């Protein structure tokens, strides 16, 4: 199974996983890691290593982090650089986490990364644009 670690600034990862459980149900083999004010990137690397010890990741690990180039991304990069079966996707959001959890039992890590990016991008929509498309389709 592919393990998932959500790493964010502040408690966002914990709340995101709590929200994910409202949509998805019981979460398994997923852990949230917070980066709190005053902590160092080295401390965050240690937190990620501890998180790895709590999940099963024989098929790989996908880190979902909030900001590309932010401390969670940089800390995860230090770990992932040493493993072929780890990757990181930035811009984590609720649709991304749900889609990853739904598909991780059938997808390989590389395809799961593509799915996560597509889910994140596809979740951004404008009400007016969607309404205009629907109106055009009705004509």
UniProtKB/TrEMBL annotation:
Q: Does the keyword Endoplasmic reticulum feature in the UniProt annotation?
A: no
Alphabetical keyword list: Cytoplasm, Kinase, Phosphoprotein, Phosphotransferase system, Sugar transport, Transferase, Transport
Q: Where in the cell is it found?
A: Cytoplasm
**A Pfam family this chain is assigned to:** EIIA-man
Q: Name one GO molecular function term.
A: kinase activity
Please give a single GO biological process term from the UniProt record: phosphoenolpyruvate-dependent sugar phosphotransferase system
The highest taxon in the source lineage is Bacteria
Q: What is its main location?
A: cytoplasm
* Entry-linked PROSITE patterns: PTS_EIIA_TYPE_4
Q: Where is the PTS EIIA type-4 domain?
A: 1-124
Q: Which GO terms describe its cellular component?
A: cytoplasm; membrane
What InterPro entries does the record point to? Answer: Bacterial_PTS_sugar_comp, PTS_EIIA_man, PTS_EIIA_man-typ, PTS_EIIA_man-typ_sf, PTS_IIA_man
- Write down the PANTHER family for this protein, in alphabetical order: PTS PERMEASE-RELATED-RELATED (PTHR33799), PTS SYSTEM MANNOSE-SPECIFIC EIIAB COMPONENT-RELATED (PTHR33799:SF1)
- Name this protein carries in UniProt: PTS mannose transporter subunit IID
